[in-house]
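Why does residue order matter? Because the sequence determines the fold. Keep that principle in mind as you read this record.
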Amino acid sequence: MSVSPPDFRVLNRRAFLSLSALGLGTMGLATLLNPSGNQIFKAANPVLHFPPKVKQVIYLFQSGAPSQMDLFDYKPLLNQMQGQELPDSVRLGQRLTGMTAGQTTFPLVGTPFEFQKYGESGAWMSELIPHQSKIVDEICIIQSMYTEAINHDPAATFVQTGSQLPGRPAIGSWIDYGLGSENENLPAFIVLITKNKGGQPLYSRLWGSGFLPAKHQGVQFRSGKDPVLYLGNPEGMDRQDRKIQLELLKQMQMSQFSTFNDPEIESRIAQYEMAFRMQTSVPEITDTSGEPPYIYDMYGPDARDPGTFAANCLLARRLIEQGVRFVQLYHRGWDQHANLPRDIRRQCQETDQASAALIMDLKQRGLLDHTLVIWGGEFGRTNYSQGKLTANNFGRDHHPKCFTIWMAGAGVRKGMVFGKTDDFSYNIVENPVHVHDFQATLLRLLGIDHEQFTYKFQGRRYRLTDVHGRVVNEILT
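Structure:
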């Protein structure tokens, strides 16, 4: 028996409430079950061009540029040609940095570290990274990354913001702007920096919001008593006093907004309110003392020392569990122009176990099914020695023409080595992946079309990938 649909033009109040009760009740129940709601609709510019394979991202940025041929890109020919001159047919007149441009000779130097094949994929891995070697079938290694930038600051700025020039929004800010947060009590974009590490300086603009509203900038969590600076109440002020103060500030700010219509005023109000909620959420999330001993053992001895790379990896997992959209880790010290054999070993001891543990921990909790983990730096290192080459010591200069990163998790092929460099690890011979290609692929995994995702600023529509970039579909599931 068919029933004619009601004529909504003649519904009285009682009939309307009767017909809509189920929908209103469902909405109310959803609010009770998830007070923060589906935050994607709270984004400033909600976008989903495709069904997303990834909900959250952890980016383990290795600042200073790890040497690809000492970790992932095995080149036995370099060992055979140790001390011989870099052939002109390989260099092809490519530019050098100011640190080696004055050298009259460019002696090739192989790796002093042993390589073996691991896993079903048979990927070559260095003895320096035994823990990552155990998860080789969980990761996708891209050996054919390249960039135009040859110095650290523009290169790091490029891979983090899509431009070599300062002032553009960071990747995490773009993602926060487009997708919003899944936890109203924590920022969508959080930054963790390994403590007490020398190396190339890290500027806050690397996690800044650029021309996007300020509420989308990354929030740095620090180790120690105050994870977020100025979050606590001043002496003599309790939480209720702070709440009253924020209400008065909000009233004044809204009065300003009604006069000037400046969107940054709304961003400022949102940041005040977030800071108030973080007073209770941050101490809870940063206190890892309740983690079981086997978790600390998995991440390594440094995991019990807040602010170390291992402790930050563990904290990143906890943040992902709480719905934080984008967690950025920075670990400095990979800029090895001299004393590379000693220094790269130290770097790997600090990062290898925790990097692998993060993947295993996410996987055992089911979080890897919707989380993407990225490991890599801003460019590669040269196959020739910077300065004097000795029997047991050397350094490597910057090399933008090829470097290696890896990705693991949702939407990415497991146990895959993609791209190939020549026998000298100097030029790419198969499947080059530009920085903008990497960024386009990351956005695609999140359900975003990088060409359509733009923000209008000073009369021009900007995007993370600027004016080019392709999705690397070959590495996607």
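Residues 340-364 form the longest helix (25 residues).
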